[in-house]
């Protein structure tokens, strides 16, 4: 069964039905028939509320194998490509699996490639935690070595790439994508943007790159201003489309 988020004040824990939670607040046995909204008590009488896991919760509680894609970047990918129910997505550079999980929870069928076997194993466990393991196929390997067989399969609606050799996949995007399909490339460094755009060539249209910046606002009695804490920039997203 799908895992639940157990909340007590600002504390959050993820457990599956039937599992045990041990904290300094006591021991809590999660019932097999737990429902979202249930209030559960530890053996010390401390209350926890069971909530359904949502996208931001997955970002916070997935086991990490590196820096995961931020929710704002995943949101831009989904917003600019329209990825959703019924779409077939080819993803490369699985990592923690945040983007793959977001896409699957929106209803897409995701095939994702991760070169590091240990990272791929973690991603598979994260997909189970997120309740999307039936819609995400985590494969171990370099996607560039499987392009010929992928081209021979049914076309993909969206390609999402977060690898150092993304440009090599972008070159094959017209063969991989269905008509009107999108490719998006996440680049941590500005130098790789040109490689992606050059790879798109004249075969893809609507080629655009955005820098992702987000600032949180601090509200106090003195006034309201952008927060001085944290880093607003995360990376660059390049989008292109097959005519």
From TrEMBL:
Residues 85-221 form the tRNA (adenine(58)-N(1))-methyltransferase catalytic subunit TRM61 C-terminal domain. GO terms for cellular component: tRNA (m1A) methyltransferase complex. One of its GO terms (molecular function) is tRNA (adenine(58)-N1)-methyltransferase activity. SUPFAM superfamilies: S-adenosyl-L-methionine-dependent methyltransferases. PROSITE patterns: SAM_TRM61 (PS51620). One of its GO terms (biological process) is tRNA methylation. It holds the Pfam family GCD14. It comes from the Archaea. Keywords: Methyltransferase, S-adenosyl-L-methionine, Transferase, tRNA processing. This is tRNA (Adenine57-N1/adenine58-N1)-methyltransferase. It comes from Halolamina pelagica.
